[in-house]
Design goal:
Rossmann fold; three-stranded parallel beta sheet; three-stranded antiparallel beta sheet
Length: about 450
């Protein structure tokens, strides 16, 4: 069987690292099986969906290294959903409900007070044609519910009906359909909720595996029943644990928390995001993978924990440093050029500074130090006098890696300074910082004339 998966975001905001986790689980699952990855936009909510968000999602996935084999928009497939609705109505499995939100809430509270599960009692099935006509005359518009197969012929006498599946992530699972309300498939305004378009598209697109967050586990029983009602075989399901903030709060597209676009703007590397999004909350150690091939080798959906994984941005920074410190010049050269870092010394510059960077963007800071100096520095008068003596001993160019050692040895001999008293003021004078790249590597990148001019 050829594996086909789908990632189905709603284009109502920017995707965050939690959404990326689902996309990456599906992408890696398909990649390891040589299968197909579908990007399918759940944009049936015309009021909230935006094409700009859809385009941003495509861009974010591309940045992460995910290239869909197919892109689809549910807003272009309404005719298919209408045919499914007709088929369900013909089978008597879709029924109109005229209940108001207030009526539903009142019944829910009554059931809870009687220690009964707060499920819909199928009151709409008890209404006569005349009663329904009267409600319509009042101006009520029905929403439509899918009649779950949890009865022996009398829907008003539901019985325990277990739907079981072998979850790709969690192993054997079961849901009792009698513990659920009949799901609403069509709103009162005629628009579709997620369930019907999703199932119809999964059938028509040949989706074999649905991998998503574990907040959808309880929905799976009803969706399997809907597949069967539409005379189709349900795909295999997998439910991974969710990411939360360190305080346990869920991530949200609407608030833009930890959005992929925002992380990218902050200089975070895509493989830092992908590595953490996939490996956190699993039995695998979280480490920075160099590319998707390496990450695929660590990916095993079964290794996911049952509990939510708390995402700490600090971990992302740690992974990012690891990736940046290991980057070769050939990998980063175009990005350095885009930052305005050019010239014959840039390869040596990169290897001199990369071990002190958290992001590639920060290379620009050190390039300005190398080419323009640190600006005005604050040193005690005795250190200023020491610097002037040291600069008088600065050897002529060309410089190499031995220049720093030879120069400081001469300064030590002439001034008597050593250790911190020798090296700290020299570093501050040259870079404006008390710590940074090895000056044996940095000094040959600087210009003697410029150093002397700035210290004059």
């Amino acid at each position: 069987m050829s594996v086909t998966v789908r990632f189905a975001p709603s284009p109502t905001g920017q995707i965050h690292i939690g959404n990326a986790r689902t996309a990456l689980f599906n992408w890696l699952f398909a990649k390891k099986a040589g299968g197909c990855f579908i990007l399918r936009f759940d944009d049936t909510d015309a009021e909230r969906s935006r094409q700009a968000f859809a385009e941003q999602i495509v861009s974010d996935l591309k940045w992460l290294g995910i290239a869909p084999d197919m892109v689809a928009y549910q807003s272009e497939r309404f005719e298919r959903y209408a045919r499914a609705v007709d088929a369900l109505k013909e089978k008597g499995l879709l029924y109109p409900c005229y209940d108001t939100p207030e009526e539903l809430e009142r019944r829910r509270r009554i059931r809870l007070s009687r220690r009964l599960p707060p499920v819909y009692g199928r009151e709409a099935l008890k209404q006569s044609k005349e009663e329904k006509a009267a409600l319509e005359a009042e101006g009520r518009k029905p929403h439509w519910r899918f009649l779950l197969p949890n009865h022996d012929g009398d829907p008003l006498a539901p019985r325990r009906t277990e739907v079981q599946w072998d979850d790709v992530v969690r192993g054997p699972q079961s849901v009792d359909l009698a513990s659920m309300s009949d799901p609403v498939l069509i709103r009162g305004d005629g628009t579709y909720l997620y369930t019907l378009p999703s199932v119809v598209d999964d059938i028509e697109m040949g989706v074999t595996h649905v991998i998503r967050g574990d907040d959808h586990v309880t929905n799976t029983g009803a969706q399997i029943a809907l597949f069967e009602a539409l005379s189709a075989e349900a795909p295999e399901f997998g439910h991974h644990n969710l990411l939360t903030t360190t305080t346990g709060e869920g991530l949200s597209k609407r608030t833009g928390s930890l959005s992929i676009a925002g992380l990218r703007e902050d200089g975070i590397e895509p493989m830092a995001v992908s590595s953490l999004a996939v490996l956190i909350g699993t039995s695998e150690a979280v480490s920075a993978c160099h590319d998707m091939e390496e990450l695929a080798g660590h990916f095993d959906p079964v290794s996911s924990s049952r509990s939510a994984a708390k995402f700490d941005p600090t971990e992302l920074r740690i992974l990012n440093r690891s990736l940046v410190h290991a980057m070769s010049f050939s990998e980063v050269a175009p990005r350095l050029e885009a930052l305005g870092i050019t010239g014959p010394k840039i390869e040596a510059f990169w290897y001199a500074v990369r071990g002190n960077l958290e992001t590639v963007y920060e290379a620009r800071f050190w390039w300005d130090i190398v080419t323009e100096g640190p600006g005005e520095v604050d040193l005690p008068e005795e250190d200023r006098q020491f610097i002037q003596v040291a600069l008088n001993l600065l050897p002529p160019e060309p410089w190499d890696r031995d220049t720093w050692r030879n120069w400081t040895s001469q300064v030590k001999a002439d001034t008597g300074r050593k250790g911190k008293a020798l090296f700290k003021p020299l570093r501050i004078a040259l870079t404006g910082r008390e710590a940074g790249p090895d000056l044996a590597d940095l000094l040959p990148l600087m210009d003697r004339e410029g150093i002397l001019a700035r210290q004059a």
